[in-house]
Amino acid sequence: MKLGFWNFEGEMLYMANLVHLRYLALSLSENVGSLKLKLFQHWNMQSFIVRGCSVILGSREASRIWKMPLLRNFYVDIIPFTLEASKVVHRNIETISWLRPKCCTEDLFTRIPNLKKLGIKGSEDFENENSDGFYNFVHLGQLEKLSIECWDLQLPYSDIPWATSFLPNLKELKFVCTWLPWSDIRFIGMLPNLKVLKLIYACEGKEWEPYEGGFRQLKMLVIESSCLEDWNAVGDHFPVLEHLELSCCCLLREIPIAFADITTLALIDLYKCRHSVLASANRIQDEQQRSYGIDALLVHSKNIQDGPPE
């Protein structure tokens, strides 16, 4: 068996003679700063995870993962990398993060057909970020968890079978700083098996009125928004919701009272919201007890604000 060793040279991390290593999980101190990663031919590597600092991975280095035939999970913080498509199909890969949006191409996705977890992260420089790349997720039929950050996303409205064969196995979706209009969330609501949706400063606009017939399987909804003021919803919009979390929604006036009709609702978490939002959550709790005899709904709150900032 060959021994593995770590060799730090300035801000470069070399990894060699690790041909028998199958699992690597490396957590680095933030004091390291940015770190350039140099990969070699790790024939038996199955999981490669580096966290805790800004890892710089060039496109040429990233492409070396195609020489790891057993690789299943590949994750590096925090700077997204570019990955060119392989010439052959890699059916073992299940996790990749964080890719640049311009990597969301048919060529790449058709060569990793069994991908289950994917992280996409853009930057302030939106040039060449492939704003139409969302359509290519149609090639990831096994994807279960998708996180998208800092992508000026434009959801295509046509030619996507939202309710049937588009991301049919997706269970968890997280949007961070995607600058979507609230109206576009109706398309996300059509995804047939979505159970967790996290919208972290993801949408623009003061009002959200969901469409009927969506979010049929959604159990957890997380919203952080500094612009949402009015949320017009009825219980049928989230028929099986169990957990609602609102954080830093400093302008939101209240949770729709119709949420009292969601008999599966078990927890409302509030953080840095207005007193009126907490009052509406308490009204929902009281209404469930009065109308349905349900006393299981819990309301948790922290750092409740007196009102919107001046």
Q: Summed up, what is this model?
A:
By secondary structure, the chain is mostly beta strands. The protein contains 4 helices and 20 strands. Helices cover 10% and strands 27% of the residues.
How would you describe what is shown here?
- The chain has 310 residues and is mainly β.
- It contains four helices and 20 strands.
- Strands 3-5-7-8-9-10-11-13-16-18-19-20 form a twelve-stranded parallel β-sheet, covered by helices on one side. Strands 1-2-4-6 form a four-stranded mixed β-sheet, with no helix packed on it. A two-stranded parallel ribbon has the order 12-14.
- Strand 1 and strand 2 form a beta hairpin.
- The longest helix is centred in the C-terminal third of the chain and has 18 residues.
- The N and C termini lie far apart (66 Å).
- The N terminus is likely disordered.
What's the number of helices?
4
Question: Could you give the order of the helices and strands?
Answer: EEEEEEHEEHEEEEHEEEEEEEHE
First and last CA, distance: 66 Å
Strand content: 25-35%
Query: Quick one: overall form?
Result: elongated
| DSSP, total strands | 20
Gyration radius over CA:
22 Å
Strand order of the largest sheet: 3-5-7-8-9-10-11-13-16-18-19-20
* Average pLDDT level: 87
Low-confidence stretches: 1-10
Please give the share of residues in helix.
under 10%
- Indicate the structural class: mainly beta
> Mind summarizing the main beta sheet?
12 strands, parallel
